[in-house]
Design a protein that fits this description.
By secondary structure, the chain is α/β, with parallel strands linked by helices. About 20% of the residues lie in helices and about 30% in strands.
Length: about 290
């Protein structure tokens, strides 16, 4: 028994030392089960490499009371980590109201289990930017969480990210109970001529009148034209463009203004053990658009 135990330990030691070829040991790949019996060869995905460094959002003046706007604190935290080569931005317990957050290379947005990042419904915080929607070059409001050309980025931690989508989305009467519809009308907004669709404001309503079947406004020439339909240009909650080595894991995404997750022309993306939750009456709230 004593010799058997020593032999096992020796084999483990050799395997860890790099003698896998001799002993037949190999490192376990966590996503092996996804590649079984594929009819084609597919490159294996790997987690992004995030430096072993962390900062707290509160170190940059943030207040998690659900009322204080923390856009500048998020920006300073991301910029600080970026200047050091990256790391983990830890969002502690609390409700953290903010405008858009832009991720940069080598940064993990770590939303702890008792933390909620809640994006402001103030549409002035979301500039209109060039993007791709429904496969078409167009413009939309910038995504609450966004990145362009970034490498090694992640959103993790077990917390919640709330897009405040109720303040952006139009609603069809047929998707609501009569009492819900009555309350919605009482909140303000506009309806179409038949009273079948509710819009949060005149900008959203106008956008619906000038858009094609792909929900893309037509005839927009000037910046003023685009601004006149801004609310209709609902942002995708997680908008990542041409990024590489991306991980979304163990996070709840809820109440998105439009699509939930849109990794556009990204490479090596892992989406693992996430939850997406939206009202059943929501419009255009696909889980993932790739």
């Amino acid at each position: 028994m004593h010799l058997r135990k020593n032999g096992t330990l020796a084999a483990i030691s050799l395997c860890l030392a790099g003698a896998a070829a001799v002993l037949g040991c190999r490192e376990t790949y966590e996503f092996d089960y996804l590649y079984q019996e594929l009819p084609f060869d597919m490159e294996k995905v790997h987690r992004p490499r995030i430096p072993d460094r962390q900062v707290l959002l509160t170190d940059f003046g943030a207040t998690g009371d659900g009322v204080t706007l923390n856009t500048d604190a998020f920006r300073r935290a991301v910029d600080s980590l970026s200047s050091l080569g990256g790391g983990h931005l830890v969002v502690p317990e609390g409700i953290w109201l903010t405008g858009p957050v832009t991720l940069k290379d080598n940064i993990d947005l770590h939303v702890t289990p008792d933390a909620v990042i809640r994006f402001s419904s103030d549409r002035s915080l979301y500039p209109i930017v060039e993007t791709v929607f429904e496969g078409l070059d167009t413009k939309r409001c910038i995504s609450p969480i966004n990145a362009s050309g970034a490498k090694n980025i992640s959103i993790t931690g077990g917390g919640t990210i709330d897009g405040s989508g109720d303040d952006w989305r139009q609603v069809k009467r047929s998707k609501m109970a009569p009492a819900q519809w009555k309350d919605l009308l009482a909140s303000g907004g506009f309806t179409d001529d038949r009273g079948n669709v509710w819009y949060p404001d005149s900008s959203s309503f106008r956008g619906s009148l000038v858009s094609d079947a792909f929900n893309v406004p037509q005839g927009m020439v000037s910046d003023e034209d685009w601004e006149s339909v801004k609310t209709y240009l609902r942002p995708v909650m997680i908008g990542l463009k041409e990024c590489e080595n991306v991980l979304l894991e163990d996070v709840l995404f809820q109440n998105s203004p439009c699509w939930n997750i849109h990794p556009l022309m990204c490479r090596n993306v892992i989406i693992n053990n996430i939850t997406v939750r939206n009202p059943w009456y929501s419009q255009n709230l696909s889980l993932i658009h790739i």
